[in-house]
Design a protein that fits this description.
By secondary structure, the protein is of the alpha/beta class. It has a single domain, classed as Alpha/Beta hydrolase fold, catalytic domain (Rossmann fold). It contains eleven helices and twelve strands. The chain has a seven-stranded mixed sheet, with helices on both faces. Helix 1 packs across helix 11 and helix 2 packs across helix 3. The longest helix is centred in the C-terminal third of the chain and has 14 residues. The two termini are 28 Å apart. 42% of the residues are buried.
């Protein structure tokens, strides 16, 4: 069962950036006034923001499927682009190419390592009205995901990893990290049905080891309001680390007794938090 706690911060305006695609204001006209006179009054309701969902390591866009269903049912446009999982700077540039083609207000949502990506991609974009972190990293400039994971005890990820090193065309080598199939459910999705977790393990996408070591250069949560779903049974990012980052960012915090795969096991809760962020910033 989730319990909600919120902390309020004061948010500063960011620099103006040009948008390329668009949603409009919806208006209705009401006719009133004395007889033989018509005085039109405009009542405008802002269009709902587009929700942009960024997955993290060892997952893909399908991890958001049930959350997308709920958000669309409630009238939100949703986009869930593929995260290359190569490094925060490179992945943020890819995400920005998607965000820049969406007109109007947006809410960026990041799961796990995807939190590092949205923190960089949203910097200085006034059209990003809120950030939602889901069992995610909120690095400050100069911090890496690996550093934040090790800041508090509780992660068992290192013992579950299956590293694969290969040579690139230029002769350099890189190491990709997977979670061992036999350990995937326990490590990543303990509260997901076994059959579903088995499929998630089979389609998991690896992350470059260097991506977890790359230091953040910007942090959009310093100037953009944020919401955070903290998973208290998480074996990837220790709950204490999640709370440390969320409190530092003055995020509105929702704690959930869930595994790292909370968007799969608790899609209602995750969708509700996203909608709270969207409603609070309209």
């Amino acid at each position: 069962m989730a319990r909600n706690k919120s902390r309020r911060g004061q948010w500063l305006p960011t620099a103006i950036v040009t948008a390329v695609a668009g949603s409009a204001l919806l208006g209705t006209f009401v006719i009133g006034g004395p007889a033989n006179a018509t005085t039109p009054a405009v009542s405008a309701t802002k269009a709902k923001p587009t929700i942009v969902l960024e997955h993290g390591a060892f997952a893909d866009g399908s991890s958001w499927s049930d959350v997308i269903t709920r958000l669309r049912r409630d009238g939100y446009p949703v986009v869930a682009p593929s995260d290359p999982l190569r490094g925060p700077a490179q992945d943020a540039a890819v995400l920005r190419s998607v965000v820049d083609h969406i007109q109007g207000p947006k809410i960026l949502v990041g799961h796990s390592y995807g939190g590092s990506v949205i923190s960089e991609a949203a910097t200085n974009d006034p059209q990003v009205k809120a950030l939602v972190y889901v069992a995610a990293f909120l690095p400050a400039p100069g911090e890496s995901a690996l550093e934040l994971t090790g800041k508090f005890p509780g992660s068992t990820l290192s013992d579950a990893l299956d590293p694969v090193t290969y040579t690139l065309p230029d002769g350099s080598t890189t190491t990709d990290l997977y979670i061992q199939t036999s350990k995937f459910r326990h490590q990543f999705a303990a509260d997901v049905p076994a059959a579903q977790a088995s499929i998630m393990a089979a389609i998991q996408r690896p992350i470059a080891q260097s991506a977890l070591e790359e230091k953040a250069t910007t942090a959009a949560w310093q100037t953009t309001p944020s919401w955070d779903v903290v998973t208290t049974q998480d074996l990837n990012i220790p709950p204490a680390a999640q709370l440390f980052m969320a409190r530092r960012a003055h995020s509105h915090i929702t704690e959930v007794a869930a595994s790292h795969s909370v968007a799969v096991s608790h899609p209602d809760t995750v969708a509700q938090v996203i909608e709270k962020a969207a409603n609070a910033t309209r």
